[in-house]
């Protein structure tokens, strides 16, 4: 089993509103960074754009807080770092790499359904990365917004039951390794690896922005993490969007 990364603290709470909020409070209280927070129960989890994140007991709800340094605009690249680390951990747990793919900008899929989501929030000079994984249960489709990718849980998809603590052991080690590589080698190597696992690369997708919806071919990700969408009007560079599969 991977050894817990020595530089990272580990905090487990029985119940919290969200591990993102819990981590933020710990930072304000002077908790040394970096550290992980794992919640046995999360009662007010939040996903991207403030959407509610369902967290039945037995699923994974955790956040890591760190002080990444470097330009503020580069912090968002950690969504790719974390997605790769989470895939590493899931493959190690299941031994089934073909099950898992990555959806831009920050989802991990299993059997082409949503298994996990990742959320990044800045807290001063700190960055908090939240991870939610459907280990034993997935929300009903009716509870999701229209057009959302169907959810799945790991127990159903892979036929194994994994505890949040076991996943955290592997995820923390995998993230520490990949964060170190990002710092020393830059983003391009991770970008290329992420693309080898990208869902629907080279296929039609729908990208919804605040003011318009675009349909085109998913052509990859650039050096800043933006989605490259091939449309009849040419390549569109999208730093942020909600992606739906056509």
From TrEMBL:
According to UniProt, the reaction catalysed is: biotin + L-lysyl-[protein] + ATP = N(6)-biotinyl-L-lysyl-[protein] + AMP + diphosphate + H(+)
* Family annotation (PROSITE patterns): BPL_LPL_CATALYTIC
Q: Which UniProt keywords apply?
A: Biotin, Ligase
In the Enzyme Commission scheme, what number(s) does this protein have? 6.3.4.15
Please tell me whether the keyword Ligase is annotated for this protein.
Answer: yes
Q: Name one Pfam family in it.
A: BPL_LplA_LipB
Domain BPL/LPL catalytic as annotated: residue spans: 1-183
- Coiled coil location: none
One GO MF annotation is: biotin--[biotin carboxyl-carrier protein] ligase activity
Determine if Ligase is one of this entry's keywords.
Answer: yes
Q: What Gene Ontology cellular-component terms does the record carry?
A: cytoplasm
Concerning NCBIfam families, the annotation shows: birA_ligase
Question: This chain belongs to which protein, by name?
Answer: biotin--[biotin carboxyl-carrier protein] ligase
């Amino acid at each position: 089993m991977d050894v817990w990364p020595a530089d990272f603290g580990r905090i487990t709470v029985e119940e919290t509103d969200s591990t993102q909020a819990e981590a933020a409070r710990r930072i304000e209280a002077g908790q040394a960074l970096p550290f992980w927070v794992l919640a046995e129960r999360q009662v007010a989890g939040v996903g991207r754009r403030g959407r509610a994140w369902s967290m039945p007991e037995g699923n994974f709800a955790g956040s890591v807080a760190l002080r990444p340094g470097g330009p503020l605009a580069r912090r968002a690249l950690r969504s790719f770092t974390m997605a790769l680390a989470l895939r590493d951990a899931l493959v190690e747990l299941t031994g089934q790499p073909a099950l898992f793919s990555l959806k831009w900008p920050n989802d991990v899929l299993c059997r082409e359904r949503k298994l996990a989501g990742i959320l990044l929030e800045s807290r001063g000079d700190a960055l908090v990365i939240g991870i939610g994984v459907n280990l034993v249960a997935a929300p009903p489709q009716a509870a999701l917004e229209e057009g959302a990718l169907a959810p799945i849980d790991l127990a159903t998809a892979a036929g194994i039951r994994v505890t949040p603590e076991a996943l955290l052991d592997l995820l923390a080690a995998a993230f520490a390794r990949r964060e170190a590589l990002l710092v020393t080698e830059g983003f391009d190597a991770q970008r290329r690896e992420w693309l080898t696992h990208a869902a629907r690369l080279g296929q039609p997708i729908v990208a919804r922005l605040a003011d318009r919806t675009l349909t085109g071919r998913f052509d990859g990700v650039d050096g800043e993490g933006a989605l490259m969408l091939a449309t009849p009007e040419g390549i569109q560079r999208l730093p942020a969007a909600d992606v739906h599969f056509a």
